Amino acid sequence: MSTTIKLARVDKRLLHATVALNWNQFVNANYAIIVDPTYSNDPFITKVMQLCLPEPMKVKIFSVEELIAFINEDSTTKRNLMVIFKNLTIAKKAVEAGFKAREIQIPYPASRIVIKKLSDFFNEEEIECIRFIQNKGIKLFFQTAPLDNKEYSVFTK
To answer: How far apart are CA 7 and CA 10, in angstroms?
Structure first.
């Protein structure tokens, strides 16, 4: 069977109510994949995050290497993934390791400040990660909730 990336997202909050409950209605994932090496071998955190999810969705917490191995392994079932990266540095490492997606979502800042250029919100290291990801053919955009418009414009300048 196949593995499909239904949503790729960078969110330092990882798995929370907006992602677990709202997004899954729109992307129909059967796995929430958290990519955060800090927690990849922590069964307690995995169990806590599993409590956030509706049945029968499963949560997995991976390092970048574990994510790539999971995506590439043969599976007897169809796997629709919602992949959540802790930060842009981890997303960049995943792309370097072979992660492929059409686009990666970033939630708006909490205050919904007007962001006209990347440096209004991102530091130099994050901008380097964004440009690297874009150079691999992956689009980035702001969007917090499923019914919000996707905002690509700040990433195209």
So the answer is: 10
The maximal CA–CA distance of the chain, rounded, in angstroms, is 46
Residues 45 and 135: their CA atoms lie apart, in Å, by 34
DSSP state string for 67-135:
HHHHHHS--SS-EEEEEEESSHHHHHHHHHTT---SEEEEPPPTT-----SGGGT--HHHHHHHHHHHH
Tokens of 76: 């007897």
Q: What share of the chain is helix, strand, coil (3-state, %, to 5)?
A: 35, 20, 45
C-alpha–C-alpha distance, residues 23 and 7, integer Å? 9
Which residues, in sequence order, are bridge partners of residue 3?
A: 79
**Residue pLDDT, tens place only, 40-88:** 888 898 888 788 777 788 889 999 999 999 999 988 889 999 999 999 9
9 burial class (0-12, 13-18, 19+ CB within 10 angstroms)?
A: buried
| In contact, 117 and 129? CB cutoff 8 Å | no
